[in-house]
Amino acid sequence: MHDVRLVRERLGELRDAMRRREALDALGPQLDRCEGLERERRLLIQAVEERKAARNASSQEVARRKRAGEPADDLIAQGRALGEEIGRLERELGDAEGQLEAILLEVPNVTASDVPAGDESQNVVVRSWGEPRSSDGVRPHWEIAAEHGLFDLERAAKISGSGFAVFRGTGARLVRSLLSYFLDVHTREHDYEEVWPPVLVNRASMTGTGQLPKFEDDAYKVAGDDLFLIPTAEVPVTNLYRDEILDSADLPKGFCAYTPCFRREAGSAGKDTRGVLRMHQFDKVELVRYCAPEHSDTELATLLGHAESMLQRLGIPYRVKLLAAGDTGFASAKTYDLEAWAPGVGAWLEVSSCSTFTDFQARRANIRYRPAKGEKPRFVHTLNGSGLAFPRTIACILEHYQQSDGTVTVPDVLRPYVGADRIG
User: Fold this and answer.
1) pTM
2) 125: which of 95, 166, 321, 359 is 20 to 30 A away, CA to CA?
3) Is the pLDDT of residue 267 over 90?
């Protein structure tokens, strides 16, 4: 959420930021309304303060007259009228502030100055790692999985519907191996604190990280309880310190968490509906960091490096893509996507998005820190990234390590967890 001072003092910057996101046409009228509401809010605050001052002066005069034995009925009536007017103005003020907040909750974050303007066609590949395997003769992961009984999409559809998978046998063990390996590395080598959070969260948590109110239709909601299944562990983990003030000595803070993730929009418009590339439920290890604002860029580089190291250790070629403003997520100020090469489908698959949110989420969730004793609290900067998402990582393993006889070599780092060096 944006500081209301941005509307009052630098509305042009906010308009320009929405233009860079190619969202100004849609949001321009709301920003105009924000400007009017902020002007109305300030006038109402001034009117309330003036009338409170008048009421105080009247009360003091009433007290003086009573001490002097003078009549004060007119001033008492005047004070009562002022109180009623103050009540009316405060209700109008609350209504204006509520409308202003409701609009600002649906205005995306301002992207960083080095983020390219425009839509996804302006995304920039900043570097790559490894040698992508040729797609010649490589079968897609769903064929290999079916041959070796790694996951069962038909029975998952019978149980839950399309967009779900049942991992079985070695496939289930492969999922568990990624869970254990990723958490072990991130906690033991990258110094993250492991968290095992709830997968049902309340409305305040979803609002704090930016999923609500704008994307409520994309979320799975539990009827009657106003609880939501999480789209990512970012939601519960980021909200751990909602409405709290941290000490500067506690920063930076890093958390990692494994959770299943739930997204209603999976497989929309018929895209990537085969295999496990787009699922309504999938597993992921998420990385979340808090830091002081001046360390935000450094922390993003650190987070990105931790996610990249997982792909390097798995030996999967990948590229790092800086997203343009129009392709950057609602709450993010800057995002790098990690795209792993899947030769069986001949495509780069996003397996991680690493983002800095500046103070956008912290302002919504009221997560602050005190720079020094006696100083005024400031909002932290929050960051997160996948380290990594499982289904597409598994698809890349099955395709990149596929052998001519139909077997799949298990990456060296996963062999102790899988208990084998070959699948099939």
Assistant:
1) 0.93
2) 359
3) no
